[in-house]
């Protein structure tokens, strides 16, 4: 009966109820550094796994686990959502941050800080791999169009993949599900699935930072435009599709996008 009553609750009343779940100092600017650090650290881990898997395999000569490499970024994202999704929203991706902002779940004033943190985190991951294995050894961690795949076709693939990723993220967050089990499994599962079937076409990046930072470390940036334009265009399409499917943005989506910092009601 409780579930039915909440389902029939007016939208404004339901939003007020959701807002009571946020600690009083949720919007206190003094906590922004925690969110920025969370995005930096989370993106570092994501790029370390996504680019580092192929780098380690190539450097060690052990390719026994190559079939699992496309799954690794999805598993990493799943873990990150679990351990810090409530801190920053676990965007880890400029395309996702921009999608939340366009969707009006995330304030534009905070977008630059998140994107800078993501770029720095990805850059540090690429530099770590270069330190461990050498600059040239980072090349296998780059995302490039597959054999006989044109840059234009790779661009289209990145647009489609990112549109579906953003739809998955926005869709699971619209009911306060991105922070928790459902969102972690859905988002991580989608990234793993996309990698399994689309990595041979475009690398299944869906994330400008994941592609740009290894490319800059290697000094090979000729095709980075594919992995900037594709995810950004896909993110915009994903937001449009979310408006078609769900309508106006929700308070629950805002909570998911911005995090709660796990601060209890005492403000400690």
Automatic annotation (TrEMBL):
Entry keyword Transport: yes
Major site of localization recorded for this protein: membrane
TM stretches of this protein: 40-59, 79-102, 114-134, 154-172, 184-204, 224-245
A family per Pfam: MIP
Annotated SUPFAM superfamilies: Aquaporin-like
GO molecular function, one term: channel activity
Compartments where found: Membrane
Membrane topology: Multi-pass membrane protein
Cellular component aspect of the GO annotation: membrane
Keywords annotated in UniProt: Membrane, Transmembrane, Transmembrane helix, Transport
InterPro entries: Aquaporin-like, Aquaporin_transptr, MIP, MIP_CS
PANTHER family noted in UniProt: AQUAPORIN NIP1-1-RELATED, AQUAPORIN NIP2-1
Family as reported in the entry's similarity comment: Belongs to the MIP/aquaporin (TC 1.A.8) family.
Protein name listed in UniProt: Major intrinsic protein
Native source organism of the sequence: Chlorobaculum parvum
Lineage: Bacteria, Pseudomonadati, Chlorobiota, Chlorobiia, Chlorobiales
